[in-house]
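User: Reviewer 2 asked us to show a designed sequence for the structure in our supplementary figure. I'm pasting the structure tokens here. Could you produce the per-position amino acids so we can include them in the response letter?
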């Protein structure tokens, strides 16, 4: 028995679910066999093989909050491209803007009016007056770190244990037995990241103060609430004290709101009064089209521009050719105008609150000491009785085997949730009946797999 679940029952059930998955998807199996010789690990990106399915699930189309696979099965989508489609797949205003702009030129490496409009709207929503664009939040974080180092003349950054900020080399550092260690899973890394990256536990003010004390830290890179190791919320008063520490030591605060944008139109920072020096947005900003943006305070923008002007001519290492392309700028404008609205957020928040209540009631009814965390339209259940305080506690509460059992059971019944941990995201198109169906199906799994 583990976490209140009879493992033997869960494993027997899981074996049946794997057989059922394969039997019901002959077209997907055929595509998987074909892909094995042309795609590394048989998928376009290797981590697409990390879903809890015995072979890849191939998608035919996605609209609103629903996916259809190549075998015709429909799924209520609670993953939503891991936030890329947070407002639903192919929102009509965004699809129309992309189609319109595609006929007028997709990329020119020159500015257009949409870029200025988007920057002005981002400044209004997020309180940072100056912006730049990228193709992904990974790039935006990478570029923001460069600007922070260039503007401050400092070489180090601080991250939180268990963080993830995209494929930014600097952040793949964890705490092991109190020591910073380069993450063992990182491939092809040939220099020691711990020379320039310090890592501390979230919610630990003393550790943050100590990390900042040597005066070498350019910026603290953080999600306002951790979401990738499992959701970890800041304790009351944490960010007020942390911001004061960061400023006292002359460092910058760089907030990554790629996931916490689920909290509202201005993200977590606007909802809770945080005042970062830089802020990164990605994934849903262009309705699922690759695009990201990062903002600067007025003071930092001036320092960054001075650093660029003082540098020798040549490539800064910041920016890519397709960044701020016309298609992305048009999609961002449409998203901010007609999709990322107060009304849509209210629907999402209400649905997420329904799911949160339902999960809590479900676990009480089944006698399980599992916790539920909600962050705006994002909701997660974890196999621990108390909400985790930091990345170490969140990691200790994970159970990959149980997660796979639950996820595949749901998927075989037309319910898709985010792989890797137990996060669910609610869009404006998520129907009340789909929330109810998810809870009922989860209850069926618990009835079949929990300890007698």
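Assistant: Here is a per-position design you can include in the supplement:
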């Amino acid at each position: 028995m583990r976490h209140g679940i009879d493992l033997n029952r869960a494993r027997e059930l899981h074996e049946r679910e794997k057989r059922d998955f394969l039997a019901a998807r002959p077209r997907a199996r055929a595509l998987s066999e074909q892909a094995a010789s042309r795609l590394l690990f048989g998928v376009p990106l290797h981590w697409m093989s990390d879903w809890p399915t015995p072979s890849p699930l191939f998608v035919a189309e996605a609209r609103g909050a629903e996916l259809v696979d190549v075998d015709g099965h429909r799924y209520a989508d609670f993953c939503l491209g891991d936030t890329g489609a947070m407002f639903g797949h192919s929102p009509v205003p965004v699809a129309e803007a992309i189609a319109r702009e595609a006929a007028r030129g997709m990329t020119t490496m020159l500015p257009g009016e949409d870029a200025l409009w988007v920057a002005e709207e981002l400044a209004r929503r997020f309180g940072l007056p100056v912006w730049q664009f990228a193709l992904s939040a990974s790039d935006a974080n990478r570029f923001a770190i460069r600007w922070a180092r260039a503007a401050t003349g400092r070489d180090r950054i601080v991250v939180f244990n268990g963080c993830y900020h995209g494929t930014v080399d600097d952040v793949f550092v964890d705490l092991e037995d109190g020591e910073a260690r380069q993450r063992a899973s990182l491939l092809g890394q040939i220099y020691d990241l711990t020379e320039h990256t310090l890592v501390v536990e979230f919610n630990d003010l003393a550790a943050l103060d100590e990390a900042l004390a040597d005066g070498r830290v350019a910026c603290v890179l953080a999600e306002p609430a951790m979401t990738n190791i499992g959701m970890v919320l800041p304790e009351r008063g944490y960010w007020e004290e942390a911001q004061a520490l960061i400023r006292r030591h002359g460092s910058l605060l760089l907030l990554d709101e790629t996931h916490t944008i689920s909290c509202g139109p201005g993200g977590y920072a606007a909802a809770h009064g945080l005042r970062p020096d830089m802020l990164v947005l990605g994934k849903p900003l262009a309705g699922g089209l690759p695009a990201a943006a990062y903002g600067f305070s007025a003071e930092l923008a001036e320092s960054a521009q001075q650093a660029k002007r003082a540098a020798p001519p040549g490539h800064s290492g910041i920016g890519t050719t397709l960044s701020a392309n016309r298609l992305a700028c048009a999609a961002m404008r449409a998203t901010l105008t007609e999709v990322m609205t107060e009304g849509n957020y209210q629907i999402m928040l209400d649905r997420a609150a329904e799911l949160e209540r339902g999960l809590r009631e479900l676990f009480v009814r089944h006698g399980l000491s599992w916790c539920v965390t909600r962050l705006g339209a994002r909701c997660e259940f974890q196999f621990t009785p108390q909400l985790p305080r930091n990345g170490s506690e969140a990691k200790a509460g994970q159970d990959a085997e149980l997660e796979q059992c639950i996820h595949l059971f749901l998927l075989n019944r037309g319910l898709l949730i985010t792989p890797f941990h137990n996060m669910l995201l609610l869009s404006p198109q998520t129907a009340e009946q789909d929330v109810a169906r998810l809870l009922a199906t989860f209850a069926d799994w618990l009835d079949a797999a929990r300890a007698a």
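For the response letter, you might also mention the following. The two ends are 10 Å apart (CA to CA). The CA atoms of residues 52 and 419 lie 7 Å apart.
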